[in-house]
């Protein structure tokens, strides 16, 4: 069998673990061949390929990023589906393993409709892919964000400040909620719960009067004020539909400073959240997903995504996932609230 | 309500997160009182108590260990159940939240039999408590072990050595398997699969002849040779029934060196695996378990253990857990094997 | 003897190590008393004091920030020198140990002019205090910045991007140069060498054409374009004379994107650079400075600053330091250049 | 010019930074060629060479170990000086840059006597090379040891134990003293000061009676009891003259347990101290030494070692170094004592 392999969308830690597992399992267990496409779907369109063997994957397990490169490129939007099919034919690809988030999974569905066998592996630091308990990259992002909050904590306390920390999370607040609980944040703002700036201000005033002289506020980049609340604001998008980093954080920090008079500072974590060596959890998740994807391909199962469900790796149909977002569950949001 | 709180058995990261959550939830949400016992069951017997409030739990979230102290002490074995009951009566305790592993849960059951309302929170870096996907401390231990293997990897490669790393895990090989996969170990020895030294030696010889000049072997302290295999060995226990650190690792390293002639070195991770700042996962787990334990106590549910099941916190009866060990599942053992 | 102790200016890791050493050495070695002032010079003016003993310094060695609190407050500018003297008299202070940067050392000089015995301990993550090889906090900041660059490196490479990272350093580029060398940055912009955006652009174009598809550019917040060069820009200051975080980085990233067409992104590290657990180097430096300051006070040496010179702790007169900035030496700037 | 390059002795973090700097500076600045020898002097004897260019050094800056491999092999002891000279002649080597510790520097001197131009770069985690303030690898080792002590601290405190931590340092106690101060150890045992177990026991008894219930004791592997003191012991050596890991630590832990009755545990850090990603300090040191070595070779200076002196890189004659050990200075030993 000749298996195609690509990574698409934003890079994140754990992709190389998945690539390594796909290659090891495909070559070692089944004797398949693995053809890598460089820079995601763009490499498929351009025919930019590399045959992968043991030497390519040496030492990549602890490395962040993706040794295949990646790009935000959608072949269907770009009107390039014909080139995709042409490359697959030229390379005699029997099935494609696509590691990616929303956009990549969406492209994978379109490709599947053309009769190509597709297996998807979910990755997104936002952790909002439907159908899987975990996506590659999320766990490392939470670690990085928590470490940053730990650092900011000592400054907040030494200077009697309100520190606002903006983290990633456009449609779901997974990173904000997890790092907020782990970092002991007083307030966590997530897209799941539109916020009321007046309640926040009231809470901070009460806290600083009663028993503290500092506070940590973690804001997901996709958090929005409740309709009709005191702060009117809509998330602004960049040219690729991306959220402008810092936009929400700046508004929130500004409002807190103005309304409370407390010395308030903003930190925007930005790109550091998606880079560097993956945590063991992301390495293991990538490894398990890679092995499972090759097992699935070999068993003739296609148009599915590998998923973690109750600690086990399972396969879910691609069509069940499309267009859905996995929100942070209420019980986790509650823990963030009650431990404030 | 007056809630007793103790931590028993070996310390580990994440205990303070649970203590903090118990106190915050009990005082803030319900207006209960929390009475801490120092040094586990020993403090109950001795009447060594401290009333816990917000000031006691300040800044403890990122701290390893337990601010209550802990001890390996079993009141029933020590014939001290009467003092336990006396202290609970003197302190007018309505229910006890016990954070601990095997031994502590066992003691909790004995106490429950005396009519005391008990809620247990599972902790053990070995992750072998039955009935819960995760126990407090395990996740941090895997992180530490993986970081150590990453470090040892560069030495193995620079010196063309076989490096044997002994990690904790007496009855189950969770740390060994997880850190072995995450660290890219060639061989993982876990109690779940008695090993055959001759197969290991054969594998290493083949690998070093074919395409590598170094190898990493991760050994759980409770790993044992298969009965009738070339290496005859039984796990030796210390005076408290503890495994002697390094005993198995030394045997395995010695056999590999002797049989292959490869330069082989042993590292015994030991106590570093159970200390230091908890990972976000352990902080969140401790926080969730602490909140859930207080909710359970308040709702009148007792003789249960908080547990993580399919990402949710649930309660399982203490009697369902007693005497059982949760082994590493076969599919994870297989990933460790196929990625070797 | 009654020794006053304060920390002033921005907080940073290692302050608590110095506080602990002052208290241990003063009480344990000489039997002095130590009176802490809260929130820097503000606490002196307000008479906000705390007598420090062994219990206050428990467990603070690995903690970032300062357990005394700090503030950006200059008693002379605030016309509060009389209150300073009044507090010192009321508390019967024989000498004051001031841990701080430029502003605090300046205030210390003014106080010394009033006849108060002053010993200064230098701290600044910018490392630009004249007369000492190292100031407390710098080393940890370099560690944090390097870790961030390591993370950003994998994203740069995976996405074929130019990543601009803005770090602290208003008058001197120590953090930028050190983290740039350690992180393998292609370009480092420091205040010591006004930059020419056209040369940068030329370098990047050549590099991306010849042998790479990504680059890392580290910019100190105080870096400025050469007079008369293509990019006209002056550093903008905030209301306290502070540099606006991100201002220079944004300009540089924008120019690179516009002039090269390469996909360019900015990360502003901000407050994380000054928080969290100190590195061993900062803990040791703080400890040595604290011990030396108490030794100096006891020996009747005053109006001096503790300094590291050729690995040894020495004392330098406060008057030698005033108004000077310690730039990055040419040989270190050259290493950053030749390893690009 | 054709420059030979090798790394000898035990591996450590920062070697790759030096290799990268040598290659970048030699090729980029001067147009020299760099011939790498694999596995230290062994590769010279065997003629195991690799021509190094930009592609070989890609991404190695943050990697521990040495991409050239290393070995403990002394050509003069092995009677292989003729092969060394033969290889240098066959490869037309104009000068050799040797990165190593005692043994390698010694071999370098022997080679220099044969008329070969030699430049040495000092590396040793023990930091005991005479003539330089810092050697490559030491700084990272201190970081690792301090992190381990931080972890062990929480266990010591939670369990009321004496924790003994054995670190490397055969002839000098640099790692023990630095990590002991940074980790807040109560007692540090270094080869520079033979210890008296009775004084240690007395100190611990007093401390545990007066104000604490735990203690940390850091022991360098080369620490020895004072002659005539209660504990009679000589350091035992392995077959290569190496200290047996754990030997001293075990003796010390045993004596403390026996004499005080306190629950006492030993952790032997071992190989983790010399692996993994280098700290920024080691990366910068390796980079500076590499650049300086190539500058020296080009300027015709030979039979010298690069050294750090008062923050500057200088050259010291090889003959000045031979047979000397750089001990921890008294003022640093004192800080370890007074902060106990």
Question: What can be said about this structure in brief?
Answer:
The structure is a homotetramer of 340-residue chains. By secondary structure, chain A is of the alpha/beta class.
Provide an overview of this structure.
The structure is a homotetramer of 340-residue chains. In chain A, the strands form 2 sheets. Chain A has a 7-stranded mixed beta sheet, sandwiched between helices. Chain A has helices at 15-30, 41-46, 81-90, 102-113, 138-159, 174-183, 197-210, 247-260, 280-298, 330-338; strands at residues 2-7, 33-37, 49-52, 95-100, 118-122, 162-167, 187-189, 215-220, 264-268, 304-309, 312-317. The first copy, chain A, has 2 domains: 2-137 and 278-320, Rossmann fold, CATH 3.40.50.450; 140-275, Rossmann fold, CATH 3.40.50.460. Chain A has 10 helices and 11 strands. In chain A, strand 10 (304-309) and strand 11 form a beta hairpin. With 340 residues, the first copy, chain A, is α/β, with parallel strands linked by helices. The model of chain A has no long low-confidence stretch (mean pLDDT 94). Chains in contact: A-B, A-C, B-D, C-D. At the A-B interface, helix 1, helix 5, helix 6, helix 9 and helix 10 of A face helix 1, helix 5, helix 6, helix 9 and helix 10 of B. Chains A, B, C, D: InterPro entries: ATP_PFK (IPR022953), ATP_PFK_prok-type (IPR012003), Phosphofructokinase_CS (IPR015912), Phosphofructokinase_dom (IPR000023), Phosphofructokinase_III (IPR012829), PKF_sf (IPR035966).
